[in-house]
Write a structure and sequence with these properties.
The protein is α/β, with parallel strands linked by helices. The protein is built from ten helices and 19 strands. Helix content is 27%, strand content 25%. The structure holds beta-D-glucopyranose.
Length: 341
């Protein structure tokens, strides 16, 4: 069976090769239809991230899956559309024991296609029934967005939890970065009724306007202050800048990653005075637990109905598995690998 594999830590080692197609009795056999590619996959292919399963020297890539169940059983029926939860319990911390491996306290979790667990970039995969999430058939191929949407839903859930520690009525939000994650966050915040400004380097982003948000090309324009800032560009300087863009009681959430070896600057009074006197907060968010997946799938359905065609536009490039390099290089939105039609 064809799979996209990589040797973690070895740049340029990604290749399509044959792997074992065995599915255990306790697992649900899932035929992979489509697989989203993201910045994390790019980092793994560049040798900067990723861990192979214990005792193996390669990792099957892929964590944003849309698949179809091959055989009745374990509570699923042949033909059901599904996605798979990425992060699995470390088995020895409170958060994982409480069903929140997204908040794992040890870092010993495993993640499909990223850390210690093979991913979904293959034609057929066996999955534990309790790690599968049903995708409604009306969503169809848009179900491939379930994973990134779950991460964004989780981030906004945490923004509300952090902001809600004190009386708060957030109205205005800034999203920095307009890649797939920035667009999904923009859509989610619009669904929740926020006035949204989305800012990025490109001169225009029609999808932002389609959702009733304002698009601003990054520059010197004074955008005013915000109740919520979500940093999706993966830029450490923008992450630091987020604090200075907050209203009193405002919350900044970081969901991009910037692993560059660098120092960033932050005005002393912004952190030393305003953050304290204005009860502002800045925090990071990663991954998602099952309730975020379910809320994300529901939100995708609402986006599909509210802005017809927009999510299809976001899924800007579909290529076969052998063209994984094109998918990884794509910056126009979300690129996917098509494993089965
Ligand atoms: C994935 C998350 C994962 C994170 C860190 C992201 O690309 O969407 O599920 O937790 O990478 O590995």
């Amino acid at each position: 069976m064809k799979a996209l594999v990589v040797e973690p830590g070895v740049a340029g080692s990604a290749r399509v090769e044959d792997v074992d197609a065995h599915v255990a009795e306790a697992e649900v056999p899932v035929r992979v239809l489509e697989l989203g590619m993201c910045g994390t996959d790019r980092e793994i292919v560049e040798g900067l991230f990723g861990v192979a399963p214990e005792g193996e020297d390669f990792l099957v890539l892929g964590h944003e899956v849309l698949g179809v169940v091959e055989r009745d059983g374990h509570g699923f029926a042949r033909g059901d559309l599904v996605s798979g939860i990425v992060r699995r319990s470390c088995r020895h911390c409170l958060a994982c024991a409480e069903g929140s491996p997204d908040s794992c306290l040890t870092g010993d979790y495993s993640e499909r296609g990223i850390t210690r667990l093979h991913g979904y970039a293959r034609e057929l995969v066996g999955e534990a029934p309790d790690q599968l999430v049903p995708i409604p058939c009306e969503l169809g191929r848009l179900g491939v967005l379930a994973e990134p949407t779950s991460d964004c839903v989780r981030a906004i859930r945490h923004v509300r939890a952090v902001g809600g520690r004190q009386p708060w009525a957030p109205q205005r939000a800034l999203v920095t970065g307009a890649g797939a994650i920035g667009i999904l966050v923009t859509f989610l915040l619009r669904l929740e009724g926020f006035d949204v400004v989305t800012s990025s380097l490109e001169p225009a982003k029609p999808l932002v306007a389609e959702a009733g948000a304002e698009y601003v090309q990054a520059g010197d324009a004074d955008l005013g202050l915000f109740d919520v800032v979500v940093e999706c560009a993966g830029n450490a300087q923008l992450m630091a800048d987020a604090l200075g863009r907050l209203h009193r009681g405002g919350v900044a959430c970081l969901i991009g990653i910037d692993g560059r070896d660098q120092r960033v600057s932050l005005d002393g009074r912004t952190i030393g005075v305003d953050t304290v006197l204005g009860n502002r907060a800045l925090f990071g968010s990663v991954n998602a637990r099952r309730e975020d997946w379910l809320a994300g799938i529901d939100a995708l359905d609402r986006m599909r109905r509210r802005w017809p065609g927009a999510l299809e536009q976001l899924l800007g490039l579909r290529v076969p598995i052998d063209r994984f390099a094109d998918a990884l290089a794509y910056t126009g939105g979300k690129a996917t690998l098509v494993l089965s039609e």
